[in-house]
Automatic annotation (TrEMBL):
UniProt similarity note: Belongs to the enoyl-CoA hydratase/isomerase family.
Keywords from the named record: Lyase
Alphabetized SUPFAM superfamilies for the sequence: ClpP/crotonase
Protein name as it appears in the record: Enoyl-CoA hydratase
One Pfam family, short name: ECH_1
Domain of life: Eukaryota
Length: 260
């Protein structure tokens, strides 16, 4: 393992797994941890044998936030001049393979924001999400006020962000933040790996296009989004995998994707 703060492995075929591993600080997202995370994500994104990426932490903490000890003495000028945490949004939104977050334990502040950056979020019922920044005299800085609001609506997001109170994994699932909630941490990680394997077995060309189309809906109006979807849909009739997939259906066979 070339990293100090994360563990990287390929367990299921086609699935890259990244485990945040800074247990003494409950996986607080220091700059060096985030650099390693970005590096590992990019490596998986560039690796042809990887189809999907699972991102998880420990049973106690997905991540308890940005590293408060690192931020404590930061000044406005230093934050501005160094574009503090810009690296958080420079890599993850550009990863083209699906990222599934398996969230157990604390996912607070930047940890909650990191989980919200994933394409699919799974959690255990006891997971503890929240944007407690207000209690530190700051506000969310890595998408919390935007992605959380988009996910759960303004009134709920406002209540959470203004009071800093936590919400549970069960609530995350009820409110649509999480796609699924599991009873235990182990089941959550296994569930994420299983879904990741399933996605990794699809045509990677179609998976990539589907991720782009869904993400487009988060950034654009309906008419433009529908146009975009239809163009990509048309484009896929120029792919080999469209022929592979539809011929296999007609011939009652399993498709053997070419990813072309
Ligand atoms: C640095 C942290 C940390 C953090 C925990 N630790 N969270 N260090 N940054 N965000 C460290 C503690 O200092 C402690 O180290 C060790 O991890 C264990 O934590 P405890 O507090 O002793 O554990 P516990 O009593 O179980 O409480 C767990 C907790 C609490 C409720 C999660 O740690 C907590 O409230 N953490 C801060 C959560 C938070 O405010 N997050 C938002 C950060 S701001 P020592 O050395 O004392 O043993 C943010 C801004 C994002 O994320 C903006 C964009 C980047």
């Amino acid at each position: 393992n070339q990293y100090q703060n994360i563990l990287v492995e390929t367990r299921h075929p086609g699935v890259g797994k990244i485990t945040l591993n800074r247990p003494r600080a409950l996986n607080a997202l220091s700059s060096s941890l985030f650099q390693e995370l970005n590096h590992a994500l990019q490596n998986f994104d560039n690796d042809e044998s990887t189809g999907t990426i699972v991102l998880t932490g420990s049973e106690k903490a997905f991540a308890a936030g940005a590293d408060i000890k690192e931020m404590k003495d930061l000044t406005f000028s230093k934050a501005y001049n160094t574009n503090f945490i810009a690296s958080w949004s420079s890599t993850i939104p550009n990863i083209r393979k699906p990222i599934i977050a398996a969230v157990n334990g604390y996912a607070l502040g930047g940890g909650c924001e990191l989980a919200l950056m994933a394409d699919i979020l799974y959690c255990s019922s006891s997971a503890m999400f929240g944007q407690p920044e207000i209690k530190l005299g700051i506000i969310p800085g890595a998408g919390g006020s935007q992605r959380l609001t988009a996910a759960i609506g303004k009134s709920r997001a406002m209540e959470l962000i203004l009071t800093g109170k936590n919400f549970s994994g069960t609530e995350a699932a009820q409110w649509g933040v999480a796609a699924r909630v599991f009873d235990t941490a182990e089941e959550c990680v296994q569930g994420a790996l299983k879904t990741a394997s399933k996605i990794a077995e699809m045509s990677q060309l179609a998976v990539r296009a589907a991720k782009e189309a869904v993400n487009k809906s988060q950034e654009t109006g309906l008419r433009e989004g529908l146009d975009y979807e239809r163009k990509v849909f048309h484009g896929l009739f120029g792919s080999k995998d469209q022929k592979v997939g539809m011929s296999a259906f007609v011939e009652k066979k399993n498709p053997e994707w070419s990813n072309e």
